[in-house]
Amino acid sequence: MKKPVIAIDGYSSTGKSSISKIIAEKLGIVHLDTGALYRGITWFALQNCVNHDETINLTELFNSFPLIELEFKNDGGELVLFLNHINVSKEIRSNEVSKNVSFIAKQKEVRDFLMESQRNLAQKGGIIMDGRDIGTVVLPNADFKFFLTASIEERTNRRYQELINLGIDTDEQQVKENLIARDKIDSEREIAPLKQANDAIVIDNTMLTKKETIESILAYVKK
Ligand code: DC
């Protein structure tokens, strides 16, 4: 029997990735955090394609695509992002990357560059992909689509704790402002904006634990 293709979209810090990871383990399927791909490109741009005034040089970035190799490697059951053979899983969570990633993710060239590999990965089935446009654009025929949302206060608290746990020194107000700014750019961009697919199941997990959110998703998938 073909294993399911599951799309999980939603606002930043609604727990999409950590929830998807556990669901993948429970169902014996692969998990792909597509946000990590956009963060990887952003990290590359910040390292290699910066103007004198420290803004990102998009032309240079687009011309560099042939030099960018993004790869997920299995590290003790966890898929870790490697960029040109370097493990960048910690770097891509930095504030600097978070501040710039929505600007990079709204570029058509960037989205086109990442589209094919995302679709190829889903072809054989047995995958849960989380992002912003998975159910609407990348995998419109996914077997199951979920859209996660939660209050800004709860999401700020979650991202703040995540950064602290990663050993990244940060300020809670700054985390909140970054989430608001990112959601705005992600929702208002022209190409593949963050929005709920018509056939997505919406889950507001402000008052739900991670476990409860997972159980709620699994209840639909196992039906
Ligand atoms: O899931 P995340 O917060 O790590 O994602 C980082 C950024 O990448 C997010 O602000 C928007 C962008 N993104 C996107 O545009 N499309 C996706 N499928 C996944 C992420």
What does this structure look like?
The protein has 223 residues and is of the alpha/beta class. The protein has a single domain (5-221), classed as 3-Layer(aba) Sandwich (Rossmann fold). Helix content is 48%, strand content 17%. Strand 3 and strand 4 (78-83) form a beta hairpin. The longest helix has 17 residues, at 172-188. The two termini are 15 Å apart.
Record keyword descriptors for this entry.
3-stranded antiparallel beta sheet, Rossmann fold, 223 residues, 17% strand, binds 2'-deoxycytidine-5'-monophosphate, globular
What bound compounds does this protein have? 2'-deoxycytidine-5'-monophosphate
Count the strands?
Answer: 8
Q: What is the name of the CATH superfamily?
A: P-loop containing nucleotide triphosphate hydrolases
Alpha plus pi helix count:
9
Helices and strands, in N-to-C order?
EHEHHEEEHHEHEHHEH
